[in-house]
């Protein structure tokens, strides 16, 4: 099955799988995105630069934590090259295949992580999320994915995209499994904490949302209201410019991190990766400084916003899961897919993508984002758990998956 879905990059030898057989995650099979180091296993970042021989000499902090908790690290997972891309088709191994429909992308950059969970290859997976790279695959593959509070989970041993925005988080089929893994990664107790006030702003950034996705969110809003949550509108301030602020900072960081590779062997990048990383070379110091100021203003506005709201509900993506395309330029689809995830990356708090239905035309999963103030993951687990306790969207399996 791993070959069929093109998700597993390297199986982890039994001696290195970890898990002494005891611990809070005992027996849980966990796959690890291939930009997160697993000791003794080739770490490629899905790139020709590293594919020949690039073994990790030690576990990333998050992998070590999982092993101490008894988890079995079973394999490393395919991804977009250097975690740059929202379709995951720009991998030296070829893109991972969405098990719901091979003609549709699995999301990215943690595409293999979303695929492996949806296909039942693992019980949970680690991904990284800079602009949506956990949430988008979770949405496209019909699973749950958490972008944790910035700085709450160690990034030691993880190849960076943009240090100010990079996060490491779990994907799993259920909210409870995501919570259990997150507690180990962050070293916290995230027992669900009852949320009261939920904002469902419309529009959040754009009114141009696929009608079926808007309808699915409407159904969730009604469900949450019936459960007893207070539902309001509360538009998110500065959201319309947030995506461009994030792009400016991420692309400038990418150009800096990959400066030597860009100068010495640009032809080794996948074309889609090169297209996006190259954008950062034109960003000036003044433009970066202005974007940092915009980031700080957005985060200050969020402090005020979440003083009045517990959780915000928005679509994870404004469009149906896109078809795999041969178009050499990925910029338009990347911007569209990330239109609602990138703004929440500018926020320092956590965002969770949870399945909320299936598109009536394509049959592909639909995801919703739940977002809270920094350190309030427990609120997200409460609301997402309430959704999963009253629906079966997360229990449905792709064709051929038992």
From TrEMBL:
Q: State which residue ranges cross the membrane.
A: none
Keywords from the named record:
Ligase, Transferase
Name the EC number(s): 6.3.5.6, 6.3.5.7
Q: What class of enzyme is it?
A: ligase
Q: Name one GO molecular function term.
A: glutaminyl-tRNA synthase (glutamine-hydrolyzing) activity
Recorded hits in Gene3D superfamilies, A to Z, give:
Amidase signature (AS) domain (3.90.1300.10)
Q: Name one Pfam family in it.
A: Amidase
The source's superkingdom equals Bacteria
Where the record annotates domain Amidase, the positions are 19-380
Q: Which PANTHER family match?
A: AMIDASE AMID-RELATED (PTHR11895:SF176), TRANSAMIDASE (PTHR11895)
Q: What is this protein called?
A: Aspartyl-tRNA(Asn)/glutamyl-tRNA(Gln) amidotransferase subunit A
Organism whose genome encodes this protein:
Gordonia humi
